[in-house]
Every structure is written in structure tokens, then in C-alpha cells.
Amino acid sequence: MNPSTPGTEDKAALRQRSIRSFVLRQGRQTEAQKRAFDLYWPRYGLDYRGEPRNLDAVFGRKARRVVEIGFGNGEQLQYAADSEAARDFIGIEVHAPGVGRLLNGLASINAGNVRICQHDAVEVLRNEIADGALDEVRIYFPDPWHKKRHHKRRLIQPEFVALLCDKLKPGGMLHLASDWQDYVEQMWDVCDAESRLRNRAGPRGALPRPAWRRQTHFETRGQKLGHGVWDLLYDRG
Ligand SMILES: C[S@@+](CC[C@H](N)C(=O)[O-])C[C@H]1O[C@@H](n2cnc3c(N)ncnc32)[C@H](O)[C@@H]1O
Question: Which of 8, 22, 68, 145 gives a 20 to 30 Å CA spacing to 155?
Fold first, then answer.
């Protein structure tokens, strides 16, 4: 075989990497959001390096560590930073306007317990977070990818959930929320089948929204469309 031709396994890996859970939209960035990057990225941003980070050094303390994946415009993350000040938060989001908005929000409350990665969460988790480094992972209203042919883009897949379990400490927690029933069914299929996770509400169960999660933009939109809301809490055994 020509050494530059990928073998079957390499091809599978390449294909897997190219299926992403997001499509980068340019979006419109306001002047305030652009300014936010200049002013506040040095304080809150973590440039992607692809190697494990020492989180005690990043935050300058030891604390319980929470990752929120796909924070959108960051309203929940800002709320959590303020209301759960004893914890440290890493927010991961690819959409620049949302990142800009959160940077401004964090600066407005002078938050010291949040850092932001603007990069694919799959790669951040895999390459920059050490195994067992996290107390909690929160994924709220991940893109539902409604069409069946797009379901492969959904974030909650067995391999990704296994990766989350590697990164969570035993005793840690995975919190998912969605307003799209078909995706919730998939979350149950995947997470209830992961041997390291236990659904707090029992198999295929959901709980009312807990106090630490405020209602987000996407949730409000879903409710206006008449959708239900499911909060799924999994303990990492
Ligand atoms: C439907 S929005 C929900 C936003 C927010 N959590 C909320 O509840 O309002 C999903 C977000 O996840 C982000 N996202 C999707 N896949 C991602 C990935 N692999 N890494 C980082 N962000 C991702 C998208 O850019 C989008 O902002």
C-alpha cells in the first residue's frame, strides 16, 4: 500500500473526526462582542493546545470542576458562575458571538471561576482534560439534528458518553436537558446502557429542572412551540 494512502482503520478514524455536532455559522458579531475578545479573552479564554491542562494551575485553586458543553449565549454559565461561586467552570462553545457575549457577561460580574474554550468539545475533552478531572458535565439543549440522516451528528453517542465517563470522577455527575423527545429517547438509549452511569430517576426517567439550571433561550423557544422539557441526571459510579 502506498504509505500516503490511509488504511481502513485510518479512514474510519478520519470519517469519524469529520462528523461534527455543529456547523460553524459566521453569525453576526456586534462591536461589543468583538471588543470583548480584545479585552477579556486574555483573562477568560483558553486557547486550544491539544494537550492536558493542569486545572489547579489554570484556576489558581482546588475546587469542584464543572464543564458546560455548548453554552450558546452563556446565560446559564454566567448564572452558575455567580450562584455556585465555590466551583470552577469550563465552558466550551464554537459559536463566536455567544462566546463574545459571555465574555462581556463574565467581566460585568467580575467572575473569577470561569474559563472558556472556543473549540470542538469532543477534541477539548479528549485532548485537554485529564481522566477523572471533572466533577460534573452539563449539556443543555444540544442541537437535536431533527432529520434522521443527521442523527449521526448528535453529540450524545456511545463513544462520546464513554469519553465523558473517563473524564468524570467516580461520584461525578452528567446532567443533560432537552426539549426534543426523539433525542431524549436517544439519550436514554445511550446513557442508560453505559455501565458507569446510573440514571437518578430510574431507567428512562427524567427529573424536574434542578435549582442550579435556569431556563435558557432554547428552552423558552421550545416551550413556545409546545415541547416538553426533560432533565436527565446521571451519577458516575
Ligand atoms: C441548541 S444550542 C443550545 C445552547 C444553550 N445550551 C441553551 O440551552 O440555550 C447548542 C449549542 O451547542 C454548540 N455546539 C454544538 N456542538 C458543539 C461542540 N462539539 N463543541 C462545542 N460547542 C458545540 C452550538 O454551537 C450551539 O451553540
Answer: 8
